[in-house]
Structures are given as C-alpha cells and as structure tokens.
Write a structure and sequence with these properties.
There is one protein chain. By secondary structure, this protein is α/β, with parallel strands linked by helices. The chain folds into 2 domains: 87 residues, NAD(P)-binding Rossmann-like Domain (Rossmann fold, 3-Layer(aba) Sandwich); 232 residues, Rossmann fold (3-Layer(aba) Sandwich). The chain is built from 13 helices and 14 strands. The strands form 3 sheets. Strands 8-7-6-9-10-11-12 form a 7-stranded parallel β-sheet. The protein has a 5-stranded parallel β-sheet with strand order 2-1-3-4-5. It has a two-stranded parallel ribbon with strand order 13-14.
Amino acid sequence: MKVVCDEAVLGADDVFRVAGVDDFYLLPAAQITPASIEGADALIVRSTVSVDANLLAKHTPRFLATATVGSDHVDLELLQDRLCHFVSAQGSSAASVAQFTWAMIALLVAQQDRRLTDLQLGVVGCGAIGERVARCGEAIGMVVRRVDPPLAETDPNGPYLQHSALSNCDVVSLHVPLTTSGPWPTFHMVNRDWLQSLPRGVMLVNTARGSLVVEEDLMACCESGHVGALALDVFPKEPEYPGILAQHCAWATPHIAGRSIEGMRANTEAIAREFYKFFDLETKQLLWPEMKTPPSLALSAQDQPADFIAKAWNLASLTEKLKSAGRQSAAIRASTFKELRRPPYRRDLTAFPTTGSLNDELRSFIVGLA
C-alpha cells in the first residue's frame, strides 16, 4: 500500500507509517502533485493542499483525509463521484480554536479599555467551536447571543437566534463554515449591509474563514468607525493575504487558531482512527512524546485575561510581522504568511500552570476555557 502525506501533519511519520503500509511518502505541500500521488491508496493533507481536478488529474486515491477542521480546500463532489472515501478532523481541535478566539476577544476588549463583564457577545455559528466560545463567555458573566439561523430552524426551542440578535452586541465572533449554496450561504456573508446591521463601534473577530468577508466592505466599515476594532486570524486569498486589510487589524495572525500542539495532535488522532478502520489495519496505540509542562505564569490580583494571554503568547509580534509584510509585494506576503505558520507551535492556554492570586474575572476566564 502506498500512502502520501503532507509533512505538516503533526506526528504523521509515527502514526501512518505502520505495518501494511509498504510505501510511505512524507512530502512538503508544494510537492504533493499529480505525479507524486500516482498509485497512492491514501492521501493525507492539511489546508494548504487543494484537492481538486488538477491534483487528481492522473489518479484518485481510495482514501483521502484532511487533518483540519474545515474542508473547503477539498472538492467533495469530485471525491464522491470518484468513490473516494473522505474524512476530516472536524471538531477535533475545537478547544484550541476556541481558546485562540478568546485570546483575540480579550485582547481587543482590553485595548478598548473595557471589561468583558460589561459587554454582550454575539457568537455567529454554534458548532463545536462556537458553542465553546459561547460557554466561556457565559462563565465570565457576559450576556451571550447564539446566532445560528440553521439551528434556529431545526431546534426552535433552543437558544439559537437570527442575525438580528446581533444588533446590541459589543463583540461579534464568527464561527461558520464556508459555504456557497443552500438557504444560508456564508461566502461573502460579511458584506456592507451585514456589517452596518451591527452596532457602531462593534468589535469583530474572525477565526473561521477569510472568504466570509468582502474585504473592501470590511475596510470601509473600519475606516468609517462602524467597526471599532478588528481581529483576524484568517484572510481572503491566503497566503497572499490583502496587506491593506491587515493594516486595519488591531490583531492579525496567519491562520493559526488551531495550530497549537494540542490542537494538531487532536487533528492527527481523529483521521488516524479512520485510516486504520478503512484499511482494516491493526489499531496502533498513539504514543506521543510526553509534553513538558510550560513554565508557570506569575499572575497577580490586578491581572486581567489580556495580561494572562500576553504572558503566555506573543501575538503582538505575529501581528507586527504580518502588518510589516503586508506593505510588501504579494510574494513577500505569501512567504511571510507561510513562515509564521511553521513550528514551533504554541501550547494551549489551559496547558500553562499559574502562580499567584487571581481575581474573580480572570479565574472565571481560565475555568471557562477548560
């Protein structure tokens, strides 16, 4: 059996090079081509590999997996037509993405010199990630609006609301998949009309997909002050992201919300189980190298969630590097975006032990992340 795997899949060499796999090729994304996958029984990728008619021009594997939550880089209809079994890691890294989202929310709010407990949060899309974000907001003591029209229709007695419920929200966080059809397409959902339905000065966070937004409309609303503060982990046209849009961000990161060690391990584990099952291989016990506990973070009773985050992660450096590259050519933007996504990967916030006395808001924040 021949298996071709993206080298960006964490732990791939240990997890997929097993008895029964005769030929295992661990390749950079750029080297996953029609020629390199010819004769492959399985192809395992991450989001930087577009699985489409061009890639599958010579051969379609029997099994294809993406070690990512989203699958908009995969032509699912084509795989179905060619009888290729497809799996994704949907939901596996929800905790990591939710923690990263909350880091952006807390940092935005602190920059506005406001308190989380005084604000209303709108969570748009209440799947595995959005629901975790919503629960953390409630643990902190925020008023949370769960906005999910499809769920509102299928579960009319649930907590799900229409988009009009965002009209009083101070912070709006996006967690919908990228879709182009059906009654609620999300491609370019965040356009001028949608943005202007939000309160003036709203803080907007997007850790979902860059193509949810119309970049010109979002920039215009930032320039007018209708969007008061912006944090983006995802951009249109990645990796050649719009440099001008990055300049409008208080926080800008290179699509890394799920790229913690814990999150990427969870991605690999999710698709590995499906791989073993499909090929009827002896289930391998996933023995990861033991992770060292990160250094303790010294906190005081005066520290707020933003202080905790700043001590754990250096998102300010990432933002500055993306903004700086954003003033350069498309080639430099793409190169910088890719470089900033490479290891070493961060640890989840919940991996950090803390010392010192915590105030109620920070304690509730940390509990809510778990």
